[in-house]
Amino acid sequence: MDLIRLSPFDLALAAVLVVLLAGVTMWARMGVGRTLLIAAVRTVIQLLLVGLVLQTLFDHAHLGWVALMAMVMLAVAGYEVMARQQRRFAGMWGYGIGAVTMFVSSFAITVLALTTMVGPSPWWEPQYAIPLLGMLLGNTMTGIALGLDRLTQNVWRERRTIEGRLALGASWSEAVTTMRREAARSGLMPTINAMAAAGIVSLPGMMTGQILAGAPPVEAVKYQILIMFLISAGTGFGAIGAVWFASSRLFDHRQRLRLDRLKPGRHT
After folding, report:
1. Helix, strand, coil fractions of the chain, as percent rounded to 5
2. Counting runs of H as helices and runs of E as strands, what totals does the chain give?
3. 16, 77, 156, 188: most buried by Cβ count inside 10 Å?
4. 63-94: burial string, b at 16+ Cβ within 10 Å, e else
5. Which uninterrupted H or E stretch holds 198?
């Protein structure tokens, strides 16, 4: 089965739907029409640029270029984690916690999958490495951002309770055990919900793309199962690691709560 190619006219028809939606939101005074149009324009520009970069990368496959692309993706994901926090850590910690935990979880699992499960030759083949890393980073980024935001918000709100527990002799870890557990759970819930509904409520993106490209449905399903498991592992380890790392940063060596290490984010 040959791939059905989309023409500029086909994309323009889809864009008309977004413009109509923006018009309806403006008519209803919802306040998101302009934002919707800007987001649509950004989507077109960003995806076209990424497409050109990936085409060049595929035509000139080299481990160095793949590694550079991966580091750029990690840098942007680290910034997005920091930007989504209502209360984030001051200084480089605000960026470093998310970036480091994503590097450890997503990169490690991607390399493991490429070298042992997918097995392209060479193992860093950009056609496989970049999309796989992108899916892992995107989902891990969301999980870590949700977990960190939940942790810092809960600690800020329950600061009197935490200080009371510390005054009664509890360690810093004991004082925030419940909040840390809730934060990690918050980071994992989107992935758990996606796995629970996959195939019944929705067809996941990678599976749908492969089917549209002409791949046998059973092969597309096998790839999607692999991706879902990898995403759950990457998101889970990343969110748990980031929450644990961040919670330890909220206290000093004398077991004191250090909320001065947090600062309001741009959404506060």
Report:
1. 75, 5, 20
2. 11, 2
3. 77
4. eeebeebbeebbeebbebbbebbebbbeeebb
5. none
Q: What's the chain's length in residues? A: 268
- The number of CA neighbours under 13 Å toward the Cβ of 242 is 44
Alpha-carbon span 45 to 40, nearest angstrom = 9
In sign, the C-alpha dihedral spanning 165, 166, 171, 177 is positive
- pLDDT tens for the 268 residues of the chain, in order: 566 788 889 999 999 999 999 999 999 888 889 999 999 999 999 899 988 988 888 888 889 999 999 999 999 999 988 888 888 888 888 899 989 999 999 999 999 999 999 888 889 999 889 989 999 999 999 999 999 999 999 999 999 999 999 999 889 989 999 999 999 999 999 889 888 887 776 667 777 777 777 778 888 888 888 888 999 999 999 999 999 999 999 998 888 999 888 887 655 4
Burial of 242: CB neighbours in 10 Å, binned 0-12, 13-18, 19+? buried
DSSP string, 163-182: HHHHHTT--HHHHTHHHHHH
CA distances to 38, 186, 203, 222 from 217, rounded to whole Å, are: 36, 33, 11, 9
- Cα separation of 248 and 255, whole Å? 10
Q: What pTM does this model have? A: 0.82
Q: What is the DSSP letter of 2?
A: P
Cα separation values, 203 from 22, 75, 107, 199, 212, Å: 27, 30, 26, 5, 12
